[in-house]
Design brief:
By secondary structure, the chain is mainly β. The chain has one helix and eleven strands; from the N terminus they run βββββββββαββ. Strands 2, 4, 5, 6, 9, 10 and 11 form a seven-stranded mixed beta sheet that branches. The termini are far apart.
Length: 131
Amino acid sequence: EVQLVESGGGLVQPGGSLRLSCVVSGFTFDDTAVGWYRQAPGQEREGISCIRTKDDSTFYKDSVKVRFTISSDNAKNTVFLQMNDLKPEDTAVYYCAIGEGTIVTMANRLKDLVDYGMEHWGKGTPVTVSS
């Protein structure tokens, strides 16, 4: 059974940092896209970043570019999202998901990371940015 478990969320002040982890079990990274999504209260889920484990190519939504960094430790089946200079508008539940590696290519082409194609999802970790 494929399982994704996110961790690292919490309460942080504006300007602070958090590092989220997504540990994937029951699945071997090959040409895999691992994406980070978030859903703020009352809003639709949005894709913010993804990484292709085959070549470490990445995508970032404009709103998090520069501030967030995605990385992968394939040996540990783990993907990280380093979030710096957090803002109140980053408050959301953060989810990771996996799918085919071509999702990263499509995200860069569309300049958008959609849900379509992601096959497995974690349950999410909440992030609250507040003073």
